[in-house]
Each structure stands twice: as structure tokens, then as C-alpha cells.
Design the sequence.
């Protein structure tokens, strides 16, 4: 699990980004919490930048998840409390 604030710092440093992407690669899953829409998409882009063969999945239920969903290899938008923008 990683917070959006921590992710911001990671994305600013190339070497750190590579190291974190390596950790992500060995993880069964990665959960990003307390993050902005841009940080959600940045997580997907970070993984895909350093691992071209990575398959990414993003699931969201609101308008703020659309960028993340579109950045992933597989994006799933569901209807939720926030409406159906993601769906």
C-alpha cells in the first residue's frame, strides 16, 4: 500500500521510481490510497514505464477515476455512489 503523497515524491526521482517499480513488479497487487486523480494515473504510468510487459488493472466508480481507468491495460468503470461517469 502506498499513499498519494508518497507516490508524488517517488515520481519526482528517476532512480527511486525505478526501485519502486521493481518492488511493484514483485508484488501480487498494489493498493494506492488517499490519492488524487492524477496520482492514481501516475501509479499506472509508473508501472508501465519501467515494465513494458506489465498488465495493469484499474477499477473505479467515479469521475475522478476515469484517467486511471484509461491509463491501465484493463480499465473497469462501475456504477457507484458517485454516479456512472466511470462506467
Sequence:
Amino acid at each position: 500500500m502506498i499513499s498519494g503523497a508518497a507516490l508524488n515524491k517517488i515520481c519526482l526521482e528517476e532512480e527511486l521510481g525505478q526501485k519502486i517499480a521493481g518492488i511493484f513488479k514483485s508484488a501480487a497487487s498494489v493498493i494506492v490510497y488517499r490519492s488524487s486523480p492524477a496520482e492514481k494515473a501516475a501509479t499506472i504510468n509508473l508501472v508501465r514505464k519501467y515494465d513494458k510487459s506489465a498488465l495493469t488493472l484499474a477499477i473505479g466508480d467515479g469521475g475522478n477515476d476515469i484517467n486511471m481507468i484509461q491509463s491501465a491495460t484493463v480499465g473497469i468503470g462501475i456504477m457507484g455512489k458517485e454516479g456512472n461517469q466511470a462506467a
Residues 37-50 form the longest helix (14 residues). The two ends are 25 Å apart (CA to CA).
